[in-house]
From TrEMBL, chains A, B:
<keyword id="KW-0804">Transcription</keyword>
<dbReference type="InterPro" id="IPR028082">
    <property type="entry name" value="Peripla_BP_I"/>
</dbReference>
<dbReference type="GO" id="GO:0003700">
    <property type="term" value="F:DNA-binding transcription factor activity"/>
</dbReference>
<dbReference type="Pfam" id="PF00356">
    <property type="entry name" value="LacI"/>
</dbReference>
<dbReference type="InterPro" id="IPR000843">
    <property type="entry name" value="HTH_LacI"/>
</dbReference>
<feature type="domain" description="HTH lacI-type">
    <location>
        <begin position="2"/>
        <end position="56"/>
    </location>
</feature>
<dbReference type="InterPro" id="IPR046335">
    <property type="entry name" value="LacI/GalR-like_sensor"/>
</dbReference>
<dbReference type="Pfam" id="PF13377">
    <property type="entry name" value="Peripla_BP_3"/>
</dbReference>
<dbReference type="InterPro" id="IPR010982">
    <property type="entry name" value="Lambda_DNA-bd_dom_sf"/>
</dbReference>
<keyword id="KW-0238">DNA-binding</keyword>
<protein>
    <submittedName>
        <fullName>Unannotated protein</fullName>
    </submittedName>
</protein>
<keyword id="KW-0805">Transcription regulation</keyword>
<dbReference type="GO" id="GO:0000976">
    <property type="term" value="F:transcription cis-regulatory region binding"/>
</dbReference>
DNA sequence: AGTTTTTGTCGACACGCGTCGACAAGTAGT
DNA sequence: ACTACTTGTCGACGCGTGTCGACAAAAACT
């Protein structure tokens, strides 16, 4: 492994000149810089990361705290990770996945102080989130994917629930649907609450009725929801799902009962990771969840913050786009609900 | 952040004594060690990772190279990551997810040489894998999840295809099935090849016929496979799936055609990550893929290697267990294939 | 022409730790 | 009682950087 000293010798300059030529923190004559860069290339030199971290106090490493639920990292986390990781790499950082056991926040703090990590990305944010409070107190830079009830000036990237919901509702409206139902859980994460109220609002605007079907995050629950719908709300012509797992069970239920999607019933999913879309048949019409982009944004926002670009925008909302696939169709003229 | 010097002062010993008390690399009087440990606890001291890496040349960081496919990290990778990450943490290491762009192996080498990473975990191993050749030449310690055609003495953790297949086939045999079919892709990864031949072998032993249904890694392809089965092999009473995504489409197809699983047709999946199991209805009978354990094992094997425990076992096969859920049943007496 | 500012470079130092050699004190073997 | 080894501790050094202060040379002002 080539060191800075070797580069300096080859380029005929001092060691510090090499550093400055690379970092740009002091002005260097163009010709000298070129000589240095040539030597760097020739020796395939790359600064020793630990030495840099030691001397500069910067590790250029981000930790993505993944709440270790039952199955460890959640499925959707995958796309966030991919995006965050890619953006971090683009800016010379690394991303460590940190399956954080429960409330081991003090550990995070220690690692932040020991220079191991420069900042933290948080997922699955609750309305009230202890982790957020902790990190703020500990002065560890962080960015959220999701947001607390009152995020204030904290950095976050989140779904634009209102815009996403409107895209879906407006499309159903275009297709002629007037009586709809929606699948939602009532987890304390806040996503559901925000989604549900945005949906009711959007439906109201279009003068559509919207019945709520309560589900939990399981396929079987989606199937139960279909059965409930089938019995109680037979005039409903379209369903909006706010839970990805339940969606799949819901489709199974429809299949089982001989209800054809999309001919008899339209279905649109608003909270479905890419991986699930390709798993269903027919392919789901969705307002897609731009998780990759959100992950990217989270990294960028966090890095801006770490590097002291406080002036930059540090809160983002992503709506996603309507992607029409195979589960939506025009309402049938003879349907009761028309 | 407390430093070694502060601990030393508090404990009334020299700095190096603190190091030795913690590492155990030299004998320290029991009483002294206790005093040191007390001071460590009191100050909440943790060695500065970069300093350690600089001085000792050990970063205690593992990189998990995830082939960035179309969707980045693959779904199953999730469980591997969780397992590998947990095991690494247990042994004081960290796991960096490295979405490796194509053949940027030289980058890996550079980072390994620069002390950034101590070893590499590889996934989605092909029969002939350039990355493996590269790492061997570059002398970067690595462990595979999966294995090349001729792994020799290279470290790996892989599925025990023979045992896993036998568990499934034997169970179907117990249920009275004699004519089966199986879903497989023919990707070059080697998994499919090994699985297919193990299955044919196991079926032969039990004197069962086994028709192959070729699929690709898509839900719609699984649906097509069902239709093919329905038309061509109507006497088949059970299906073994070797591809998780196709499985879900297969079930949709059965629903669509009014074929009841498990009453009319049994289905058992051998290569399905946990996340997919909870997504299907009825819940899948599987020989589960112990991905979490495999991830753990990969980390442990790699760390053993890094730490020079060459004598330890560095190749493992995991079969998984038969988990009976809702997609298998006794063959129906009146079925043609009986 | 003299003074101040900017540009370009260098040497020195600190970051916090692992580890080597030295050495005093104790133990074991003759 | 002398040597030989072991135990327990310490001080010193080096790992490869980032960065600060110094300073000569050049440029920009009076």
């Amino acid at each position: 492994m080539a060191t800075r000293a070797e580069v300096a010798k080859l380029a005929g300059v001092s060691a510090s000149t090499v550093s400055y030529a690379l970092s740009g923190d002091r002005s260097i004559k163009e010709e000298t810089r070129k000589r240095v860069l040539k030597a760097v290339a020739q020796l395939n030199y790359r600064p020793h990361f630990a030495a840099g971290a030691l001397a500069g106090g910067k590790s250029k490493t981000l930790a993505l705290l993944s709440p270790s639920g039952e199955f460890g990292i959640a499925l959707i986390a995958l796309e966030y990770i991919n995006g965050a990781s890619a953006a971090a790499r683009d800016r010379g950082y690394h991303l460590v996945i940190w399956p954080s056991q429960e409330s081991e926040m003090s550990e995070i703090q220690t690692f932040a102080e020991s220079g191991m990590i420069s900042g933290v990305i948080l997922m699955e944010i609750k309305f009230k989130d202890d982790r957020v409070d902790y990190l703020k107190k500990a002065k560890v830079p962080f960015a959220m994917i999701g947001r607390t009830e009152n995020p204030g000036k904290d950095s976050y990237v989140d779904r634009d629930f209102i815009a996403a919901t409107q895209l879906g509702i407006d499309y159903l409206h275009t297709l002629g649907h007037k009586k709809i139902a929606f699948l939602t859980t009532d987890r304390a994460i806040g996503v559901d609450t925000r989604f549900s109220s945005a949906l009711l609002e959007a439906a109201k605007k279009k003068k559509m009725t919207a019945n709520k079907l309560q589900v939990v995050n399981e396929a079987s629950s989606g199937r139960d929801a279909f059965i409930e719908l089938h019995k109680k709300y037979s005039d409903v012509t379209a369903v909006v799902s706010l839970n990805d797992i339940a969606t799949l069970g819901f489709i199974s239920g429809a299949n089982e009962y001989g209800v054809n999607i999309p001919k008899d019933l339209s279905l649109i999913a608003l909270d479905t990771p890419k991986n699930h879309i390709e798993m269903s048949w027919p392919p789901l019409t969705t307002v897609n969840l731009p998780a990759y982009e959100m992950g990217r944004a989270a990294s960028n926002i966090l890095i801006d913050q770490i590097e002291g670009k406080e002036n930059k925008q540090n809160q983002e909302l992503h709506a996603g786009d309507l992607v029409i696939r195979g589960t939506t169709a025009k309402v049938r003229p003879q349907a009761k609900g028309n």
